[in-house]
C-alpha cells in the first residue's frame, strides 16, 4: 500500500526537463516585468519602448484596415440604395399601350391587360433587337421612348443609362402636322391633336408601306423626312436609322409618295355618287365606303384595284393634277 502511494507521489513530481523549462519561462517573465517596471520617462531606450512601438504599429494598421473596410461598406450600401430608389418601373397604362402597339405590329398575340407575361417579354425582346436597343425584355425608359409612349412626371426625372445611341423623339407639333398630312391623303380621319392613337399608328404604317420604308407605326426621322416635315436641331443631329430604310431597298429608288388632296378626294366622291357607286357625303376623306367605291370603279375601268387615289386613277377619272403630282 505504501509503495503504491509513493509511486503515485513520484508521478506527480515534475521531471528535470520540465523544471528547466519552467525556470526559463519564469526568468523571461521576470525580465519583462522588470523592464516594464524600470521604464521612466526620458530614458534613452528600454525594452518597453520597443514593445510599445510594436504595439502602436499593430494598432495603427488594424485601425486603418477597419476604417477602409467601413468606408467601402458604406459606399456599397449607398450605391445600392440609390440604385433601388431610382429603379425604373413602367406604369400599368404604359404596359397596356406597349402590348397594344406590339399586337398591332403582329409581334404579340396575348391579352392587353397591362401585365407582364412570357409572350409579352418575348415580343419586347424582338422589338428591342430590331430597334438597336438592349434586348432585355423589360419596358425601360429607352424602349418607351422608342415606342413614343409618354413618360410620367416621375419617370422624366430619371436619367436613362448612358449609351452611345440617342433616341429620336418627335414633338407635339410634328405629330399634329403628320396627322394633317395623313388626313389629307385619306389615311387618317381623327383630329390633329398632336398625340398618338391607335388610328394614327395604323395610318402611319399604311403611309410607311406605300413610301417603301419600314412599317413601325411611329414617326421616326425617315418618316418625317418622307413627309416633308421639318426637323429640329436636336433631331437633325441624330442620323437616320439604317433599319428604317430597309423596306425601301427592294423597291429601288422611289420619289415622293403620291398623295391625293382633299379637294381631289371630294371631287372623286361627288363623281362616284353621280354614278351610284357611293352614297356617303363628300367629306374629302378616304373612308371605307369611298375606298370600296374606288375599287369598284377601278375594276370596271381595267385599272389595278387598290382602293386608293393614285396618279393613274385620278387621270382616268379626269381629275386635274397639281404640278407636283404631274412630276411624280
Describe this structure in words.
This protein is mainly alpha-helical and 328 residues long. Among the domains are: 59 residues, Muramoyl-pentapeptide Carboxypeptidase, domain 1 (Orthogonal Bundle), CATH 1.10.101; 77 residues, no CATH class; 65 residues, no CATH class. Helices cover 56% and strands 0% of the residues. It has 15 helices and no strands. The chain is elongated. It starts with a helix and ends with a helix. 22% of the residues are buried.
> Major β-sheet, in short?
none
Enumerate how many helices there are, as a single number: 15
How much is the radius of gyration in Å? 42 Å
**Spans of 5+ residues with little confidence (pLDDT < 50)?**
248-254
- Beta content comes to under 5%
Ends apart, CA distance between termini: 134 Å
Sum up the overall morphology in one term: elongated
Computed structural class: mainly alpha
Mean pLDDT: 79
Summary of the model, kept short:
The protein has about 325 residues and is mainly α. The protein has helices spanning about 1-10, 15-40, 45-85, 90-105, 120-130, 140-145, 155, 170-185, 200-210, 220-225, 235, 260-275, 290-300, 310-315, 325. It is elongated, with a radius of gyration of 42 Å.
